Each structure stands twice: as C-alpha cells, then as structure tokens.
Amino acid sequence: MIKTTTFGLTYTFSSLLLVLLIAQQSLAQGNDTFNPNTLCPLLANGTKIKDPRYCNVYIVCMNDTSVSGSCGDQFFDLNTGLCVDPDTIDCISSNPCAKQSTGFAPDPYSCNGYYYCSNGVGTHGECSSGLNYNPDTNNCIRNFPCEITMLPDDYCNIVPVGAFIKVPDSCTQYQTCWQSQLLNGTCPTGFLFDAFRGDCDYPQNVNCVDKNNPEIPVEVSCNQTGVFISDGVTCNGYFYCGEKNDEGDYKMIHGNCPVDRFFVATNGGECLPRTSIRCPYDRCVTLGLDFMQMANIDDDGCIGFAICQYGKEISRAECPQGQYFDEMAQLCVDEEITYAACSTSPSSTTTSSTTGSTIITSSSTISSTTTTTASSQIYTSTTATTEAADSVKVPT
Ligand SMILES: *[C@@H]1O[C@H](CO)[C@@H](O)[C@H](O)[C@H]1NC(C)=O
Ligand SMILES: *[C@@H]1O[C@H](CO)[C@@H](O)[C@H](O)[C@H]1NC(C)=O
Ligand SMILES: *[C@@H]1O[C@H](CO)[C@@H](O)[C@H](O)[C@H]1NC(C)=O
Ligand SMILES: *[C@@H]1O[C@H](CO)[C@@H](O)[C@H](O)[C@H]1NC(C)=O
Ligand SMILES: *[C@@H]1O[C@H](CO)[C@@H](O)[C@H](O)[C@H]1NC(C)=O
Asked: Where would one find the signal peptide in this protein (predicted)?
C-alpha cells in the first residue's frame, strides 16, 4: 500500500493498480536454466516457489537469495504452499523420474517420448513417428491425444498464482500466473515496479536501473554535459546529459519528475509543481491511475479540462459558464484560476509558489548527492551509490 498526498488529496494505491494484459504463455525457459538465485530477485521477498527439478522440494525467496526445503515423502503443492499426499497433485518436473523412481514415465517435454526409470535414473525411449505415449497403458498409440500445455520450467509451474514476477531489464513490467497462463502487466505511468515488494511504487521509492530508455526523439539532443533537458514527449520526463562518447554524442539518461511535478529546463532543469508549468504534451501524465481525474488545458484561460485515464487524455470538457477549472481541487470553481499552466497571459510568473521545488542536481558532481531542497527530493545519476531513501536513481 502506498499513501501519498497530491494536490492536498490523499490517494491510496495498492497492488490493484497493477494492470494486467493477457499474454501468451511463455515457453521460453529451457530446462537447464532453472536457477533460484536468478529467479528470486525477480520475486517478492518471502515468495515460496516450486523447484521444478523435484516434486517434493520448495524454495523460499528471502532477501534476494533462496532457501530450499523438502517435503520428504510428500509432494509440494504450489497452490497452497503446503506438503501434500503425492496422489493429490499432478507434479510436472524436468526430471521424469521425480514422481516415481521406478517404472515408466512420460517425457515432460514431448508427447511421443517416455522414460523407463530405475531407482530414479531414467532411460529415454521414443514412440515411432505418428504415435504418442499413453501414460495410462504405457503404450505407444497412433493419434493418442496429447498436448503439452505446461513445461517443467514454465514460470507457472514454479511460481504461485498471483505472485508478481519482475521482467528483467524493465523497470515497469512484470508478469503473473493466472489459471496457468502467464499474464503481462505494466505499472501505471509514472510508477516503477518494485520486485522485492511485488508492487508498483513511485520512482523515488524504487531502486531500478531501466536499460530500456525510451526512444530519443530526433529533435531532442544535448549540447552540454551536466544539464537536464525535456524528453520531448512527456511533461514530466527528462534526459540528463552525460559525458560525450567517442563519436561526440552525449550520453542521455532518462528520468521522470515526482508525480505532481513537471519538468522545465530553467536553471539547468528542474521539476516544479505541474500547475505552474506550460507543457505542449499530454498533461494527463500520472493522473487518472485508479479513478478519474482531470487536468487543466494549456493556454485556454483555465476554463476547460482534460479527462484523464491511466495517464492519458481521453476527452475534454468545459466548466459551466463563468467557472474555471482548478486542477489542484479537481473542481470547477467560481474564483478565477490563473495557473501558468492554463492562463492565456504569456507565461506568467505565478511560479512563485515553488516552495519545496525539486531541484535536479545539475553539475559535474552528479554522481554524488550535492544539493538538497525543502522537498528533500534529490535526483542523482549514479552508478553504484545508494542514496538516501528519498532520492531517485536515474538509470545509467
Ligand atoms: C509479454 O512480455 C514478455 C516479456 O517482456 C514478451 O516477451 C512477450 O512478447 C509479451 N507478450 C505479449 C502478448 O505482450
Ligand atoms: C531438456 O529439454 C529438452 C527438450 O526441450 C529435452 O530433449 C532434454 O532431454 C531435457 N533435458 C533434461 C536434462 O531434462
Ligand atoms: C524478507 O522476508 C523474510 C521472511 O519472510 C523476513 O524474515 C525478512 O525480514 C524480510 N526481509 C526484509 C528486508 O524485509
Ligand atoms: C533478511 O534481512 C532482514 C533485514 O535486513 C534481516 O533481519 C534478516 O535476518 C535477513 N534474513 C536472512 C535469512 O538473511
Ligand atoms: C544548448 O541548447 C540550449 C537550448 O536548446 C540553448 O539555449 C543553449 O544556449 C545551448 N548551449 C550551448 C552551449 O550551445
């Protein structure tokens, strides 16, 4: 659960924010690839998973490492996390002899293969072409109906239903198993996925280095090191201009302002309260994530508003005659609203209310925390240093 205050309102977010998209079941993982020490860092602390190499072994992911346990003569039931009678569950294991150490067993990877297990050691056999192995009769049968819907190393054979699995190299995507299907999910705009807690949270609370920087629009380019520039696509996104490489191009590192702030290039780049910033891109960014919200519209005299859903503008409307839209109050009001964001007057200086403005540290000492402000939000672009809890790591 995340609680935050934006525009004076308290919003409560929970993992219900996680937006699921149906995805095809991934069969990508190979059987030799199961490694709890690479899987556990993608799962929430405390998640109990099945070791697909056995029927009776489970693994608890703890503090990013793994601790395994055994059910002895019983089998591990992934659904309940308990040890149960072997007859009550269908164990899918990469070891065909895990279920029964002596006798015939199907090949977990193919319909026409089988094993003969002797004291836990399997000898592979294969039905002739066009025949499939029938595990009930231990025969090869023509056109015997068989379809492998779950491979031993599929996430959904290992990770319990509803557990969130971080997508490596992404800071926003995760996957989860539901009815034996692997579903893809993405955190709402402005949020990052926290694998250790299995939830979406504000960037400042998540330690993630996104290797998938957004596309850099052609018109967006750095001309000096140590400054921040707009990402040219979003109101809250920016690039930090890093060192020049051998080709003479600046390294560009993407980042986002905290939720209620927009990026502006003044003073080498800063994040200011959104109502004080004019922005040509979708002002709905980070709004409407779990219930409907509205945003002021650029340059319309503050009479209209955009309706926001999942961080995107879905339509526009106007306040009743004589009223103005107040983004902070999320209401049409009688008093005239003069936010710089929506005023028709040329970019006014109503940004005086920048108490607690977020300064993005701009300087060559970017790798260490240098400046702090009233808001205690500090942006740093670093490699290994772990900053204070309130800071954000800009991806490298
Ligand atoms: C689901 O996500 C995975 C990992 O990012 C990707 O490879 C796959 O194509 C996605 N599937 C769908 C249907 O979006
Ligand atoms: C791994 O899977 C392949 C088929 O994908 C199978 O031929 C092979 O026997 C499996 N290896 C082990 C060790 O189970
Ligand atoms: C992770 O979970 C374990 C067991 O569930 C708990 O003992 C430990 O304190 C947790 N670690 C952190 C850093 O919260
Ligand atoms: C996990 O981390 C927590 C907090 O850092 C610590 O109290 C606990 O002892 C650790 N558990 C293990 C098994 O390392
Ligand atoms: C870099 O570009 C900005 C705006 O694009 C411009 O205002 C500034 O003068 C340029 N700086 C240099 C050193 O060329």
From this structure: 1-28
Q: Is 63 in the pocket of ligand 4 (CB under 6 A)?
A: yes
CB-neighbour burial class of residue 238 (10 A; exposed 0-12, middle 13-18, buried 19+) = buried
Opening angle at CA 238, ends 235 and 241, nearest 5: 160
pTM value surpassing 0.70: no
In the block, residue with structure tokens 């409307």: 317
Instruction: Please tell me the residue having the least CA distance from ligand 4 atom 11.
Output: 63
Domain count, the chain: 4
CA distance 92 to 107: 10
Q: Which residues line ligand 1 (CB under 6 A)?
A: 23-24, 167, 173, 184
**Tens digit of pLDDT for each residue in 68-78?**
999 999 999 99
Q: Do 198 and 262 reside in the same domain of the chain? A: no
Indicate if ligand 5 lies below 6 Å from the C-beta of 353.
Answer: no
CB neighbours of residue 286 within 10 Å:
28
Residue type at position 39: L
* Containing structural domain, residue 237: 227-342
Cα–Cα distance measured from residue 270 to residue 257, given in angstroms and rounded to the nearest whole number: 8
160 in the same domain as 138: no
